[in-house]
Amino acid sequence: MHLGYVELGRFRVDAIDGGAVWMDGGGIFGVVPKTLWCEVLPPDDQNRVRLSFFSILVRADKLTLVIEAGSAAHEPPKVREAHNADDSRLVETLTSLGVSPEDVDYFVPSHLHFDHAGGASTPDGRALTFPNATYVLQKAELDEARNPRPINKNAYLPGDIVPLSLARLRVVNGAAEIAPGITVERTGGHSVGHQVIRVGAKPDESVVFCGDIVPMSQHISPRWMCAFDINPVDTFNVKVDILNRAAADGTIIAPGHGGHAPLLTVERNDRGRYVAHRLPSIKPLDWKDEGRK
User: Distance (Å, rounded) from C-alpha 172 to C-alpha 192?
Assistant: First the structure.
């Protein structure tokens, strides 16, 4: 589903909801009491909340870049059923925007968990979704995904990771420029090699894709974090830095799973709290819009 677009200097940035999984709200909101988080994202009767497969399409001149691919296609059938997982609609939506998978020059996930990178290969795992693209990954994330510690094992699915051997990889270690005006920066926090992606040459004409540092727009408060962040202190510190910069210079924030405000700006109110404002050109999306199977 195409949610709309925004033009940032020479870049056109399109927001895409490519389907979703439904996951336990307690895991998604961590230590936040249910009485608080259910007011901004009501759960279903199994205490699950909708997590969008949220992707960003970036185009400029002859450059085509996709951030995130979502999908739980390689999960075992029982787990897919428990997650009420959709089939990915990313390629379908890209096609509707005039972009074929072969047109994509770069694919850049924030990290390699199943709900962010699973759609980078076909459901049967035999081919890449973007066969001509350079896949940009942090070394620490790729190393962990290939040989995960026991606590991370369920987050990295072999069906997602093994096909990456077919890809043209650019493995970076920390901050790197992918193309003029597009950079990545390793944050850690949610995963060992989690990265954020920045698009735009000027702060007031740029967007930062936060991945699971800011999982949804409902997580705009710094202390609202996932229960499964590998290092929550790092998540908190990076998140505060991103929010402070966005409030000061107008940088647009893209949460990793979209939410009610898939692209948003931030201000601080008179109590010092961060307040999110959805870009008016981007359609709001929440669990009510998609219904349930």
Answer: 14
Going from N- to C-terminal start, the domains of the chain cover 2-290
**Of 236, 224, 243, the residue nearest 187 (C-alpha):** 236
Q: Are strands 63-67 and 48-60 parallel, antiparallel or unpaired?
A: antiparallel
Contacts 24+ apart (CB under 8 A), 125-131: 125/74, 125/159, 125/162, 125/163, 126/163, 127/163, 127/166, 128/163, 128/166, 128/167, 129/69, 129/90, 129/91, 129/101, 130/66, 130/101, 130/102, 130/104, 131/101, 131/102
What does DSSP assign to residue 180? T
- What are the DSSP calls for 65-123, one per residue? EEE-----TTS-HHHHHHTTPPPP-HHHHHHHTT--GGG--EEE-S--SHHHHGGGB-T
Question: Which contiguous run of DSSP H or E holds residue 235?
Answer: helix 232-249
Query: What 3-state class would DSSP assign to 244?
Result: helix
Query: CA nearest 259: which of 283, 293, 229?
Result: 283
Residue pLDDT, tens place only, 121-160: 999 999 999 999 999 999 999 999 999 999 998 899 999 9
- Number of Cβ within 10 Å of residue 245's Cβ equals 15
Take residue 22 and report the two structure tokens written for it: 């439904």
Percent of the chain as helix, strand, coil, to the nearest 5: 30, 30, 40
Instruction: Compute the distance between CA of residue 117 and CA of residue 192 in angstroms, rounded to an integer.
Output: 15
In order of 34, 54, 159, the CA distances from 102 in angstroms are 44, 20, 21
Architecture of domain 2-290: 4-Layer Sandwich (3.60)
Predicted TM-score (pTM) above 0.85: yes
- CA–centroid distance for 10 within its chain: 23
- Could you report the per-residue pLDDT of 24-54, keeping only the tens digit for each? 999 999 999 999 999 999 999 999 999 999 9
